[in-house]
Amino acid sequence: MPGETSETLRQLIRSRIRSHPFVAVSNREPYLNTWQDGKLAWMRPASGLVVALDPVMRASRGLWVAQGDGTADRAACDENGFVDVPPGDPRYRLKRVWLTDEEVENYYYGFANSALWPLCHVAYQRPVFRHDDWRAYREVNEKFAESVAREVGNEKAFIFIQDYHFALLPRLLRQRCPRAVIAHFWHIPWPNPEVFRICPWKQEILRGLLGSDILGFHIRYHGDNFIAAVDQELEARMDRERAAIVFERHMTKIRAFPISIDFDAVARQAASEDTEERMKAIRARYGIGEEIILGVGADRIDYTKGLPERIEAVDRFLDRYPEFRRRFVFFQAGVPSRTHVDAYRQLNETLDGAVRRVNAKYGEPGWCPILFLREHLPLAELLAWYRLARFAIVSSLHDGMNLVAKEFVAARVDGSGVLLLSRFTGAARELRDAVPINPYATDDVATAIRLAIDMTPEEAGRRMRKMREQVRERNVYRWASDIVRKLSKLA
Ligand code: GDG
């Protein structure tokens, strides 16, 4: 079966959705404005969510409501926060919602990222529950509800809400827009009831989400955990056969939609001449000759991604297999993230210390085992590293999906390369031909690195080809099309 493309998605939306407004809501905006040399400039945040939703919005010519946080955002839009995007080729409208610094501090860094994020990931980082954060979270959800309701009113419309920043929004919108069909997609894991029950506002959160008609997770396991949490905390009717919950006479269907990437676009860019040039440049700049076995990793610097564990595994590997010293390099790209939050600052220090220690322990003149670049690399540069590598490590302690794994696979246009993939990612459910790892067991990860290096080219090729078929077929357009199909049935 030929895979879904942006064109098939566009046709699907035209035939099923076009007659009603389509409204997406997310914390992060798809395009932001900055000042460059006194002039207004546009930027696109590199975010999986934006890559996934932008084509849906282009095709539906809808409205995207998001927080305006670019330095020149206010100057670029009208007095109601509206601006047409994409710049130069407008297809849909962006409505920016303005938050105060205090709201950002308490709603975003506070409740969303210091309470819900650790609570849902169960990465042994204790969630912080503060009243002020919760109050701001509620207020910001209400602010967004007002902003969306002003546009939708009593009309029939499709509203597609993104992520853990807006757990309360579905219910708030159902009260304000009774004819809307509401979907919510939760991009991170949902924990089991024993973990979830410590949240002081657990019932409000569950009630909020149960305002949706469809609640999507990456994998069924997260949906099952959600159903179990509702079962434990609320008086609701569970329809396990239909994976649905009826609460206050409203039915919410719980479904799995594994998110993905634009496979063809990544593969095309990875195969380009520009990437080949960059590969040569990297080899020259870092002295990575053909004899060097290169491993790679690329992540936001987040405690859920298992970065110190990965460095420790490299340490174990070099300790146990000294024959690889001087001919092994591990490259890690890390994008600084949420450095405002204490836990992230500590993680950065831990990581720096770990890299320094391993490099000091094994490094010799002319050879440094770990290259750590703490910056946001252009995607083209990342793809060049992916193509140069013998293997990639994704060692998340817990991850909703993990798009880096899929991007590495799409980038391997040569059909080789080995993916070491944490069992605790959503991606591991789909990419069965990756080498599964338990990031907590660093000795085993060291063994897996050895296995990746020793794998015959035939075996590596067979596995990579299967993973490429998988990601090509289950691409981001498939994700969006599946959701649109489900939504349109509820209209
Ligand atoms: C959340 C969930 C879920 C990373 N470094 C660079 C860079 N990246 C890009 C990657 C990838 C994206 O950032 C990271 O996506 P992930 O999926 O790995 O992780 P989260 O940011 O935690 O995303 C996750 C996702 O939502 C979607 O639902 O998969 O489970 O946690 O696209 O390539 N991009 C560039 N330079 C870098 O240095 N250009």
How would you characterize this protein structure?
- The structure is a single chain.
- This protein is an alpha/beta fold and 491 residues long.
- The protein has two domains: 6-260 and 476-488, Rossmann fold, CATH 3.40.50; 263-473, Rossmann fold.
- 47% of the residues lie in helices and 18% in strands.
- The protein is built from 19 helices and 18 strands.
- It has helices spanning 6-16, 48-60, 73-76, 101-121, 131-152, 169-176, 193-196, 202-209, 220-233, 263-270, 273-286, 307-320, 342-362, 379-388, 403-411, 427-430, 442-454, 457-473, 476-489; strands at 22-26, 32-36, 39-43, 63-67, 82-85, 92-97, 158-162, 181-185, 214-217, 237-239, 244-247, 250-256, 293-300, 328-335, 370-373, 391-394, 418-422, 435-437.
- The strands form three sheets. Strands 5-6-4-1-7-8-9-12-11-10 form a ten-stranded mixed beta sheet, sandwiched between helices.
- Strand 16, helix 15 and strand 17 (418-422) form a beta-alpha-beta unit.
- The chain is globular.
- The model has no long low-confidence stretch (mean pLDDT 95).
- Bound molecules: GDP-alpha-D-glucose (GDG).
Main beta sheet: 10 strands, mixed
Please tell me what the overall shape is.
Answer: globular
Determine the strand fraction and express it as a percent band.
Answer: 15-25%
Q: Roughly what percent helix?
A: 40-55%
Instruction: Please provide the count of β strands.
Output: 18
CATH class of the largest domain: Alpha Beta
- Report mean pLDDT, rounded to a whole number: 95
Looking at CATH, the homologous superfamily of the largest domain is Glycogen Phosphorylase B
By secondary-structure content and strand pairing, the structural class works out as: alpha/beta
Q: Give the termini distance in whole angstroms.
A: 28 Å
Instruction: Please give the count of helices.
Output: 19
- Biggest sheet strand line-up: 5-6-4-1-7-8-9-12-11-10
Poorly predicted sequence stretches spanning 5 or more consecutive residues: none
